[in-house]
Each structure stands twice: as structure tokens, then as C-alpha cells.
């Protein structure tokens, strides 16, 4: 039907067919008929809903006090809103291992000897301990240099120097171990995040045997800051001044009750926590059993 409509003018069609030039044939079709079809294509009718919306927008009065200021988040325009992209970050390997280890320690059964390291001092107790130990921080390199220069000057002038030994914090695993074995240590703090844990896993039991008060604290970096190091596995206090004796006695008594004399620390096994998906699954199974029991009782 289309071809009959196009070639209704038979005389012109016969003239084109008789000729050998195909170019004239196609140009004739384009000029005469294709343009006509493009002009007569019907437009899509507008829906009644769209008209109603346009009328409502037109009728709505604009308040001059509240001018609409739409933001444009394209390149070079308004500042992009903050989004939580933590799920899309490629975290370093040490962070991934740290998180995976934390989850594993929650899932699998952890022996009591290792689980006790998670029972650290709370915020109030740790602040008291750290405020006391900061007074006994060892001298820095500059302070040591100044002290030696002063001692050399006084010696050159034949003056008496104060050769009294200063009480400071002791650090280093081997050093602290010898202090505990000889019962010279009066207080021992152990970091809870030592890796591998086998380095210090035996130290709490040694402190219990030698009756030296000890505690687990957060964290090895904070212990290291007390003794001007990057990290420290443990620190020990060998002596205190007279003005700090009463505070130290109260602190030592609390730590003995909480750690040395607390036998539950060596009995409680850690881990065994189920993930959120498994927890929901267990709850669904439990609910299904309860429904079955109700059905049986109702019959």
C-alpha cells in the first residue's frame, strides 16, 4: 500500500524506470515523498495529569521572603554533601588483619589465659594510674644531657653533687621480669594488645605467684609514651615518694582485688559470640519451635 501511495503519479514513475540512473530514482523519492511523511508524523498527546500539575505550579503564589535556591552538584559548582565512603575504601593490610582478628576472637573459643587480657582497667581507674605514673617518667635525652653538664661543672668547682638515685619507671620485658622475680617491682602494667600475645601471656601468672599487683591497660602505645618510646609491652614501678604513698596504697589494694585475687579471670573462657546473621537465623528457628509447641498444646 505504501508503494502505491508513493508512486501514484505513474507517468513520472515510468520516466524514472526507463532511465538507467539509480541516483535520480532515490533523489526523486526523497524529495517528493519522504519529506512529506516526516512533516505529517503525529505528536505524542500530553496526558491530563501533566496539564493538572502545570496548572497547579502556575497558580501557586511565590513567597518573596523564601526564595528557592536550588543547589547544583555538578563539577565546579556547589560543594558535594558528605557521604560515608568507608565501605568503598581500600584499607591497608594491617587494618584488615586487625579487624579480622577482632572478629575471630569474638567467634572462636578463647582460652582464659588469653581472654583475661581483654579485661582492662576502665576509664576512671586508668586515668588515676596514668596520672600517678607520669610523675615517675624517666628523663629525656635533653634532660639527661643538662644533668650531666651540671654535674661536671659542680665537680670542676669541687662542689658536692646530689648522687641520690632517682626513682623512675622501668620498662623492657626482660628487665620487668627480673624485677618481678626478685620482688623489687611494686606495680606492673601490661598492655592488652601485645602481638604476638605469647610474649607476655605468662607474666600475669608470675605476678600472682610473686604477689605483685598488676593490671591490663590500653594500650602499648600509651605505655610507650610514659617512657618516651613508641611502644612498651609492660612497665614496672619499683618505688614511690612519700607524698604519693597513700595514693599508691589505695591503688595497689584495688588492683589486687580486681586482678591478683580474682580467680574468675582464669576460669571464664572468651569468644563464642555469634554473628548477626546467625543470631537472626537462630531466633527464627526458636520462634518456629514455639509456634509448633503452641499448635500441639491447642490440639
Automatic annotation (TrEMBL):
This is 60S ribosomal protein L7a. Pfam families: Ribosomal_L7Ae. Belongs to the eukaryotic ribosomal protein eL8 family. GO terms for biological process: maturation of LSU-rRNA. The lineage of its organism: Eukaryota, Sar, Alveolata, Ciliophora, Intramacronucleata. It comes from the Eukaryota. One of its GO terms (cellular component) is cytosolic large ribosomal subunit. Keywords: Ribonucleoprotein, Ribosomal protein. It comes from Paramecium tetraurelia. InterPro entries: eL8/uL1-like, Ribosomal_eL30-like_sf, Ribosomal_eL8-like_CS, Ribosomal_eL8/eL30/eS12/Gad45, Ribosomal_eL8/Nhp2, Ribosomal_eL8_euk. GO terms for molecular function: RNA binding.
Amino acid at each position: 500500500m505504501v508503494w502505491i501511495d508513493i508512486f501514484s503519479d505513474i507517468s513520472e514513475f515510468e520516466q524514472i524506470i526507463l532511465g538507467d540512473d539509480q541516483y535520480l530514482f532515490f533523489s526523486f523519492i526523497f524529495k517528493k515523498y519522504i519529506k512529506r511523511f516526516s512533516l505529517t508524523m503525529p505528536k505524542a498527546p500530553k496526558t491530563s495529569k501533566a496539564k493538572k500539575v502545570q496548572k497547579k505550579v502556575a497558580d501557586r503564589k511565590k513567597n518573596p521572603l523564601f526564595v528557592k535556591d536550588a543547589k547544583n552538584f555538578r563539577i565546579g559548582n556547589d560543594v558535594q554533601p558528605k557521604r560515608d565512603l568507608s565501605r568503598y575504601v581500600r584499607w591497608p593490610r594491617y587494618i584488615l588483619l586487625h579487624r579480622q582478628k577482632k572478629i575471630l576472637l569474638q567467634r572462636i573459643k578463647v582460652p582464659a589465659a588469653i581472654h583475661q587480657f581483654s579485661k582492662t582497667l576502665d576509664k576512671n581507674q586508668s586515668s588515676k594510674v596514668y596520672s600517678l605514673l607520669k610523675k615517675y617518667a624517666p628523663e629525656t635525652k635533653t634532660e639527661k644531657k643538662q644533668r650531666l653538664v651540671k654535674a661536671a661543672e659542680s665537680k670542676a668547682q669541687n662542689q658536692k653533687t646530689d648522687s641520690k638515685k632517682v626513682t623512675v619507671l622501668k620498662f623492657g620485658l626482660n628487665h620487668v621480669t627480673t624485677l618481678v622475680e626478685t620482688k623489687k617491682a611494686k606495680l606492673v602494667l601490661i598492655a592488652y594488645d601485645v602481638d604476638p600475645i605469647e610474649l607476655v601471656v605468662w607474666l600475669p601468672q608470675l605476678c600472682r605467684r610473686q604477689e605483685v599487683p598488676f593490671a591490663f591497660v590500653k594500650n602499648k602505645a600509651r605505655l610507650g609514651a610514659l617512657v618516651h618510646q613508641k611502644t612498651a609491652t609492660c612497665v614496672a614501678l619499683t618505688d614511690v615518694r612519700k607524698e604519693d604513698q597513700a595514693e599508691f596504697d589505695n591503688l595497689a589494694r584495688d588492683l589486687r582485688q580486681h586482678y591478683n585475687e580474682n580467680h574468675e579471670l582464669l576460669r571464664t573462657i572468651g569468644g563464642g559470640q555469634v554473628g548477626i546473621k546467625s543470631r537472626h537465623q537462630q531466633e527464627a528457628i526458636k520462634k518456629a519451635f514455639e509456634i509448633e509447641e503452641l499448635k500441639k498444646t491447642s490440639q
